[in-house]
Backbone:
């Protein structure tokens, strides 16, 4: 039972998670575009397995550490949709590639050369900046040059990726997809086969997933949707809550919960309390959440347990080593967070 949990504890609403999982999986059934969901959002192998069971063709991730965890659990089709650099990471990736089915994104010839120096035919995708202004080559011409460098160095060129971020409009998403499609065309015109074109997030999966030339989608947040992303992503219900205990109360003014920045991210805005309209979270410090009492009759007592809606899931999950899967007030499953 929830009453027995030590707080703060991260709760996962099983009904909402399963509905989100099924909604995304249903979209891809019978389509040529596939889903290779991102691991970084939930960092949970049990959830990755459910995504695979629902039709995903593999798992995307952000770091070598995540890829290592996935490999340790025998997860197939790992895509590291992010850059690595430096001798330590190059060595780690080469070791991982010996024991797992893993493909890495690159955007710089120096990394291709460093990988090639070890004479092991690793699998690579060229990352294209489709508007996020983060990693990725800047043009189709650069993508072509890097693909040629990969092939010339004896490595395996598999295709392209481009993550457009939390795009808010169809036009912005289509503009991003057009950049990827343009890269694909240029490579093919130059005789380079493109097996994979990976793109799309939880807010853009429908547009990216139907765009000609895109072969797979790397959405991840949908399965553990938070209230920040949920505000622009109405297809998926919020899934995460933090259970906390009232540890102090100043009558008529405020109460304090045993949950702060060490268990809950406030980076993208302050979270809201669940079912507590008479109170509003004002501030998070390391170990405390300070809540203003707006309605003096709000029934709150020291020792009460209160749920907070998680506003930024990625950075909150990262603070925990497990999530408690809850249905109708009972814990059905404990999900380990790894990577
Ligand atoms: C490169 C990359 N791909 C995919 C994702 C997952 O997309 P979303 O959060 O929109 O589901 C992210 C971020 O979360 C990302 O950084």
Residues:
């Amino acid at each position: 039972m929830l009453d027995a949990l030590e707080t703060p504890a991260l709760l996962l609403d099983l009904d909402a998670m399963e509905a989100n999982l099924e909604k995304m999986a249903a979209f891809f059934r019978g389509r040529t575009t596939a889903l290779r969901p991102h691991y970084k959002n939930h960092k949970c192998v049990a959830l990755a397995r459910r995504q695979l069971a629902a039709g995903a063709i593999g798992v995307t991730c952000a770091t070598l550490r995540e890829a290592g965890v996935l490999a340790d659990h025998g997860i197939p089709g790992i895509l590291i949709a992010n850059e690595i650099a430096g001798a330590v990471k190059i060595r780690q990736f080469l070791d991982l590639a010996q024991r797992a089915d893993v493909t890495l994104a690159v955007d710089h010839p120096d990394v291709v050369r460093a990988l090639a120096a070890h004479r092991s035919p690793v699998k690579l995708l060229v990352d294209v900046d489709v508007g996020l202004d983060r990693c990725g080559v800047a043009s189709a011409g650069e993508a072509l040059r890097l693909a040629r460098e990969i092939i010339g160095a004896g490595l395996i060129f598999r295709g392209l990726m481009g993550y457009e971020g939390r795009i808010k409009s169809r036009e912005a998403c289509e503009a991003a997809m057009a950049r990827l499609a343009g890269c694909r065309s240029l490579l093919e015109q130059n005789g380079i086969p493109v097996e994979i074109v990976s793109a799309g997030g939880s807010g853009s999966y429908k547009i990216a997933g139907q765009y000609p030339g895109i072969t797979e989608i790397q959405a991840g947040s949908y399965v553990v949707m938070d209230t920040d992303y949920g505000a622009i992503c109405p297809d998926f219900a919020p899934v995460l809550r933090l259970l906390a205990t009232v540890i102090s109360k100043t009558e008529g003014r405020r109460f304090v919960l045993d949950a702060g920045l060490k268990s809950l991210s406030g980076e993208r805005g302050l979270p809201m309390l669940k079912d507590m309209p008479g109170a509003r979270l004002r501030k998070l410090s390391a170990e405390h959440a300070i809540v203003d009492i707006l309605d003096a009759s709000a029934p709150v007592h020291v020792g009460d347990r209160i749920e907070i809606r998680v506003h930024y899931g990625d950075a909150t999950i990262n603070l925990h080593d497990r999530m408690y899967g809850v249905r109708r007030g009972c814990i059905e499953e404990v999900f380990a967070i790894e990577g």
Remarks:
- The CA atoms of residues 140 and 186 lie 7 Å apart.
- Residues 170-189 form the longest helix (20 residues).
